[in-house]
Amino acid sequence: RPRARREAALGLRPGEWAEGKSRDEILRTLDARRMHGGFSFGGDMYEQCGRRLRVQRRVDRTVEEATGRLRPVDDTVILEGSICDRYFGCARAIPFQWQEVWLKRVESGPSERDLPTQPAAGSQA
User: Fold this and answer.
1) Angstrom distance (rounded) from CA 116 to CA 88
2) Which residues, in sequence order, are bridge partners of residue 95?
3) Is the pLDDT confidence value at 3 over 60?
4) How many Cα atoms within 13 Å fall on the side-chain side of residue 95?
5) What is the pLDDT of residues 65-124, one digit of tens each?
6) Among 1, 5, 73, 81, which one is least packed by beta carbons within 10 Å?
7) Which residues have C-beta within 8 Å of that of residue 122, sequence separation ≥ 6?
8) Could you read off the pLDDT of 29-66 as tens digits, one per residue?
9) How many CA atoms lie within 13 A of 36 on its CB side?
10) For the chain, how are helix, strand and coil distributed in percent, rounded to 5?
11) Is 42 helix (H, G, I), strand (E, B) or coil?
């Protein structure tokens, strides 16, 4: 395993809170194809930079779309409410698989900026 990848491992567990790093921090981890560890970062994921979300579960293996094969993965989690709803086959509401290098552990839950906004009473969306 590459050293930089292992140093980025947080060992996040279900129920813990994580915050998406800034767009600039994440871009520095991506290769020319905008990937890290075989996972792409883009689309709706950018909207979650800086937000705090609870870890739903760890990911130990994933399906390679091109081949249909299962492959093992390291340092990867799914965050509650973090799903694709606009890009790359999102009609399936696929949860994003977050590399821990794109996250930082936080001790508390969401701040006010992390919560969905509700329209004011009487206003129309």
Assistant:
1) 23
2) 83
3) no
4) 17
5) 788 899 999 999 999 988 876 655 566 677 889 999 999 999 887 766 555 544 444 444
6) 1
7) none
8) 999 988 888 888 887 888 889 999 999 999 999 888 78
9) 23
10) 20, 30, 50
11) coil
Per the DSSP assignment, residues forming a β-bridge with 104 are 19
Q: Where are the beta strands (DSSP E) in 48-95?
A: 52-63, 70-79
Instruction: Confirm whether pTM is higher than 0.85.
Output: no
Rounded CA-CA distance 20/52 in Å is 7
Residues sharing a CB contact under 8 Å with residue 69, sequence separation 6 or more, in sequence order: 63
CA–CA dist 93, 67 (Å, integer): 21
Q: Tell me 29's DSSP state.
A: T
- What sign results for the dihedral spanned by CA atoms 27, 50, 58, 3? positive
